[in-house]
Amino acid sequence: MIKAPRGTNDILPPETNKWAYLEALLRRLSNTYNFQEIRTPIFEYTELFTRTVGETTDIVQKEMYTFEDKGGRLLTLRPEGTAPVVRAFLEHGLDSKALPAKLFYLGPMFRYEKPQAGRYRQFMQYGVEILGSPSPYSDVEVIQMGVKIAEELGLLGTTLFINTIGCPECRKEYREDLVEYLKDQISDLCPDCRSRIDTNPLRVLDCKNPECRKVTQDAPSVHDYLCDECEAHWETLKTILTSLGMEYTVDPTLVRGLDYYTRTVFEIKWPPLGAQDTIVGGGRYDGLAEQLGGSHIPGVGFALGMERLLLASDKGEKPIDATCPIDCFIVVAVGEDDGFSDDMYIRGFQLLQDLRSSGISCDFDPLRRSMRAQMKHADRAGAQYTIIFGEEEFRNSAVSVRSMKHGWQKQIALDHVLGFVKGEILGGT
Ligand code: ATP
Ligand code: MG
Fold it and tell me: Is residue 218 part of a domain?
């Protein structure tokens, strides 16, 4: 039998209900914070990512699904959302409209990674971007929204890590000093980090290897190299966070993997998740639009992994309810006299249509199994009411309505049953 590709997930009911709930929550919060949805293609020209995410990053070096199409174009399944959003923003001239633009996206991303809990090859991200605002208030707005999402899902004990990595100006001198320091200790670094020294020395700082950690603990800090503007931005950011009573931890080794970040970077972690505990990651990317051939448009945003958020929710204080109950279920007795039970069945089916037309969710058993089996089916579907077409009642032009929740059962005349059930379920409308 053919199976789904490694690192991908089929999402089945009732799990899909959790996804629908999470998506609705994210859309509602997007609206609360005034972000509007943008949808970009699943694949882009490979160059978009190599030029922005960076030639030396894990994403570009190891993780991209890249292919040539029949026209000989080099395309890549998007590994992340920010570069495509900025590409579309520039392509459609949104920079000449009212700024800042506040956009959100929600959709699948693709990375060729080693699959494990919370790490897949196709995964869903939700992300927000504020384009056209250099203000640290915008940084806080996106950080605050990330925290808010975790709160709404009942995730207690999230930790917010923030850092600044300066701008290309202040990083120039810093980079030189960092490289010099790392070269002195090269024998203590892992093979990956040894090759990063020349290509992407900042990435050495967030290597998880304990030996590398020892080396980086005493490495020069970018905080000592910040230019006046970056310093002011960083101080204001912290002041605003403090004034909002938001707790944060400054992590000088937090640099994030992507080349396009400038100044603020942040992550929100939820430790009970274990190894893959970062649920939200983001930062500022003031040079990205220029890198793509546009004008200078500062930006800030975050992305979150929806699978990880759902894993967290399941372990949290307020797990999302996966059930999606229906209002009622129609049960029809299977009688000896087939003609008679056929009548009941057709009448039951008509009632089903009437109820559905009124917006009441309901179902029946098309297989005409025993009443017991039908009642079980009703139970599985989470029906609040069952409407039972029994032979005796039907002879008197009536049916029984049973409340599964309250346990009562009433006989109702067939002509009134629609009105009765509507009254019960829709509250008399
Ligand atoms: P990580 O360090 O966990 O690999 P990252 O820095 O590569 O994360 P980002 O590019 O910042 O991740 O993506 C933002 C969020 O998307 C992550 O915090 C995580 O929740 C989620 N995410 C990233 N990669 C994956 C993946 N392969 N599978 C599932 N979720 C992912
Ligand atoms: Mg990664």
Answer: no
Total count of domains within the chain: 2
Kindly identify the ligand whose nearest atom is closest to the C-alpha of 206. Answer: 1
363 Cα–ligand 2 center, Å: 44
Domain range spanning residue 399? 328-424
In 3D space, the residue among 90, 119, 122 whose CA is nearest the CA of residue 107 turns out to be 122
Q: Which atom of ligand 1 is nearest to the CA of 278?
A: 18
Summarize pLDDT for 167-221 with one digit per residue, the tens. Answer: 999 999 999 999 999 999 999 999 989 988 988 898 899 888 899 999 998 999 9
Residue 206 in any domain: the answer is no
Q: For residue range 304-322, what is the model confidence (pLDDT) as tens digits?
A: 999 999 999 999 999 999 9
**Pocket test residue of 302, 308, 310 for ligand 1, highest count of atoms within 8 A of CB:** 308
Query: Of the residues 22, 278, 313, which should be mutated to test ligand 1's pocket, given the most ligand atoms within 8 Å of the CB?
Result: 278
Instruction: Please choose, from the candidates 142, 28, 22, 126, the residue with its C-alpha nearest in 3D space to the C-alpha of residue 81.
Output: 126
- Kindly report whether the global pTM for this prediction surpasses the value 0.85: yes
Q: Which ligand is nearest to the CA of 120?
A: 1
- What are 184's strand-pairing partners? none
Q: Is the CB of residue 205 less than 8 Å from the CB of residue 253?
A: yes
Tokens, residue 244: 């909002």
In a domain, 212, yes or no: no
